[in-house]
Each structure stands twice: as C-alpha cells, then as structure tokens.
Amino acid sequence: MFAGHKLRRRASKGIVIEASRQVKQTTANLTVNTLSQDWTGAGSNRALVVFVANGGGVGEQLSTITFDGVAGTILGERGADGGYSCGGAAAIWLDADLPATSGTKDFVITLTGLNNYWIVHSIELSGVDQTTPTSGWTEVSRTALTTPYVYGATVLSQTGKLVLSGVMTSDAVDAYTTGNFTPPAGTTELRDNGTTKTAMACGYVYDAAASEACEWTCRPGGSTNIDSVVAVAFAVNQA
Question: Could you tell me the residue ranges of all domains in the chain?
C-alpha cells in the first residue's frame, strides 16, 4: 500500500522537489520490513531522501534501509525511550544508486530489534550536490509530553538553503491518523500520517533563515500525552 503525489517545486537555488510519498507497516514485531512504492525518477543530479519512524521498541534500532536493492546512507538517528518508545531517522540515496526508470520499487528496512509499527516518508529531489548533498544535521528528543506540544529541531548556519524536517511521535493509543501535526511557520508540510501507535510528519522550507526553527505542533492519537517524540532537520545542498 502506498500513497503519493507528484510535485514540482523549485527552490531559488535550483533544487526541485519532484515527488513525495509515504508507506507504512501495520504488522507488529517484524525485524525485516518490505514495502513497495512508486518511483518517478525525474530530473538530473537526483537524490531520494526518506524519513523513517518506528514505535513500540527501543528507540534507536534502524540497522539498514535499501531502496531497489541498494543501501541508503543513514544521515542520523535518534531514539526517545518513554513509556511507549519511538525512533526517528533519515537516509539518502544519490543519483548513481537510484533506479534509471520509473515504476514500483521496494524499501527493505532491517532493524536491530523488534518494533511494532513504522512509517517511511520519501522525497524525490533533483538538482542536488552529489559530493556533499546535505549539511547541518540536527536531532532532538523528549519523553512524556502534554498536548498540544510545540517541538522541533533548529538548523543553524544554512542560510538560503532548502531545509527538510521531520517529527516522529508515539503513544499507547491506537488512534493515529492524518492531522496530528501542524507545521512550523514558513514550513510547507509534505506528509502527515500515522499507523498504530506511531505518527510522523515532514516538510520543507526554501531559502532558510540563518537559524531555521523547525518546530512542529504535535498532538497524540487520543490520549492526553505523547509518550515519546523525536525531531530531525537538515539542509540539502544545490548541485
């Protein structure tokens, strides 16, 4: 099962968001997860960026993630081990490792332990620097939050760049659906969705400020608290 739509948004620096999609796993207690999604593959100097959320296990447990059989580079990962733990990560593939043709492709996620549920939000880009594609990685986490709660990561010294951010939350209530997040001022939301006990949103801001605060408003699936939250953000560099 997948959901997606074609985008074509151009940054002032020349990076294009070609498409964004989401896939999610609703089967509990898997250490290897395979899920299919569409792939557009448009443009030159391409990159595929994914945000990954997992809930129900120890927070940091992403071992590898492949797309069409090729391993991605994990940009960073953060865990939040609250009453109901979650983990958040991001990974990237560059042009030489991406499929040449469009069609349905597979993500395969391997974990170091069991988790209950996970979500992948993917963003296809063109116009990306193939030597130093990202910079300014920032990650934060908290546990036992009241709602609504404004939380996020601040990216520093990336003025004028495309900044991507993601927020991942988990609690013990099976009520996560679209609408659990409100993006920061100036950030355009790409994805906002959930599965059992886990939810995630991601978005972008073009021409970032010198100190870009990617602070999302987070709401739980039905309880009064969020057990765990992780937020990550980073800049994408133009070719």
Answer: 3-236
Establish how many alpha carbons lie within 13 A of residue 227's alpha carbon, considering only the half-sphere containing its beta carbon: 23
Residue among 124, 214, 229 nearest 176 (CA):
229
Count of all residues that appear for the chain in the document: 239
Three-state DSSP state, 95: helix
> What phi and psi, each to the nearest 5 degrees, are found at residue 106?
-110, 135
Q: Are 102 and 196 in contact (CB under 8 A)?
A: no
d(CA 166, CA 126): 20
Query: Do residues 86 and 53 make contact, with C-beta atoms less than 8 angstroms apart?
Result: yes
SS3 96: helix
Q: Which stretch, 85-89, 107-111, 183-187, 193-197, has highest mean pLDDT?
A: 183-187
Which range among 63-67, 111-115, 189-193, 201-205 has the greatest average pLDDT?
201-205
AA identity, residue 179: G
Mean pLDDT of all residues in 88-111: 91
